[in-house]
Amino acid sequence: MLSWVYRSLLLGVCLLMLWAGMPDTAAARDLSKQPPQDQSIQLGTADSQLVFVPKDLTFRNGSLYRLHLSNPSQLKHYFTAKDFADAVWTRKLEVAGVEIKGQIREIELKPGASVEWQFIPLKSGVYSLVCTIPGHAEAGMLGHITISD
Ligand SMILES: [Cu+2]
């Protein structure tokens, strides 16, 4: 029969083993190290429709994403979602061999341009997306971005 001293010792050893296992767990919790999930959005269409395709995007809080933005149209467009931009941590924005790091507020895409935006959503909610070129939102260039728990 084990006395409480032995039981305490056993518990201590177990806790020590748990603690020894911690470095692995801590490394797995570095959210920026996870493989990115790909999603795409088009700003306008090749036949000049003033829409986002798709008009709604959904991301999961805490996951790393690589959002491919492209403009297949003949007009320039804006990806403006300021509240969404404030609700994510940007890992980088990559375009034609250039990486931009830091907070992103708004992205302008000229005809034929494309860019990759890597970010991790941090704050759940539904955010509005709009193209701020005069007349485009009125014509339907609007959408929503959802960050789910
Ligand atoms: Cu537009």
From TrEMBL:
Q: Which UniProt keywords apply?
A: Copper, Metal-binding
Domain (Sulfocyanin-like C-terminal): give its ranges: 110-148
* Gene3D superfamilies linked to this entry: Cupredoxins - blue copper proteins
Signal sequence, renumbered to the chain: none
PANTHER family membership: AURACYANIN-B (PTHR38439), COPPER-RESISTANT CUPROPROTEIN COPI (PTHR38439:SF3)
Annotated protein name in UniProt: Biphenyl 2,3-dioxygenase
Q: What is the lineage of its organism?
A: Bacteria, Bacillati, Cyanobacteriota, Cyanophyceae, Thermostichales
